[in-house]
Amino acid sequence: MYMIESKEGAIICMLLALLFLGTWPAIMTLTERRGRLPQHIYLDYTLTNLLAAVTIAFTLGQIVLNLGTLATQYAWAFVGLSVTEVITASIAVVIGTTLNYFLDDRINRAEILFPGIACFLVAVCFGSAVYKSNEDDNKSKLQEFKSLENVSSFQMETNPANGLAQEKGSAAFLIELEKQRAIKVTGRSTIIGLAITFFAGICFSLFSPAFNLATNDQWHTLKHGVPKLNVYTAFFYFSVSAFVSALILNIKFLYWPVLGLPRSSFKAYLNDWNGRGWSLLAGLLCGFGNGLQFMGGQTASYAAAGAVQALPLVSTFWGIMLFGEYRRSSRRTYILLTSMLFMFTVAVAVLMTSSGHRK
């Protein structure tokens, strides 16, 4: 069984996890914006997410097995990829990292760790301001439209990432995107999306401390002589439970959809190959990203591994490159966006610097 021995190795794992965990939401958003139903996307995602866990368990973990993140998909549509990542990441870091600090017997340097958490809180404030400013920018763009016939007056440009013909960031682009995407958001209250986002943040904040307890048994729930789960076995069980719950929920949503989505079926899902490769890739990235996060956390502490929740650093990059987010926005939006990304960068550096070494 392979174990990370050094703090430097753990930090490398966490940086790779940050890259993977910040990329898979962008890939799922890409397929949804191309019109694929989120239930279909998530069913594909869960298959390869489990495959990644099995691969890690049998290779790095070398275990012999014996039988013994749906909410955010909908939130992205309502409030956007970047702001969803900002809010969920910040909730996860503030709650999850604090819990892990005490569960890990305070092996992190508190004088560094908690200022890092404070940086996340500042970043989420900037993120909220970015969202509000960008929304105001989009409203002013859409006010230029009196009817859909005005679209032809805008500059046309091919956008291979989304399959849209309008110039990224224009009002025409926003209207055509709304027509193409699976989840329609025009006229809907963002309160729904924000509520889902906060619920997702609470869930994200608790699974890392629960994983910490599973591998280190700080509450001494195991009977005498019963060995603790190693990180690979715990990760496998974690992924199996995620697979089962996601499978049940999404099959239910196929036949009883929410948020105005059309009704589907398991047969329709099997026949839907539009964007399937991207959905499967998203599951692999999330699975390997979570595995790397837990591997690094087991060595350098799960509190320090909370740094991988700085997903907006990666997801905002993909949002700009793939989806044209913040294109043709105001100077105020760009200043706020730069400030948010700077604070997340500082937070990641500070949290990783606080890393300890588990005895």
- Rg from C-alpha positions? 21 Å
Note the gap between the termini: 18 Å
Task: Tally the structural domains.
Answer: 1
Q: Mean of residue pLDDT?
A: 76
Largest sheet: 2 strands, antiparallel
**Order of H and E elements:** HHHHHEEHHHHHHHH
- The SS-based structural class is mainly alpha
Tell me the strand percentage band.
under 5%
Strand order of the largest sheet: 1-2
Low-pLDDT runs of 5+ residues are 63-82, 148-161
Number of strands: 2
How much helical structure, as a percent, in the residues? 55-70%
User: How many helical stretches?
Assistant: 13
Large-scale geometry: globular
Main location: membrane
Membrane topology: Multi-pass membrane protein
InterPro entries: UPS_plant (IPR030189), Ureide_permease (IPR009834)
Keywords: ATP-binding, Membrane, Nucleotide-binding, Transmembrane, Transmembrane helix, Transport
Description of the molecule:
This protein is mainly α. The protein has one domain. 69% of the residues lie in helices and 2% in strands. The chain has helices at residues 7-33, 38-59, 70-79, 81-103, 110-142, 171-180, 190-216, 231-255, 266-271, 276-300, 302-305, 312-323, 331-353; strands spanning 156-159, 164-166. It has a two-stranded antiparallel ribbon with strand order 1-2. The longest helix is centred in the middle third of the chain and has 33 residues, at 110-142. It is globular. Mean pLDDT is 76; it is low at 63-82 and 148-161. Keywords: ATP-binding, Membrane, Nucleotide-binding, Transmembrane, Transmembrane helix, Transport. This is Ureide permease 1-like. It is a multi-pass membrane protein.
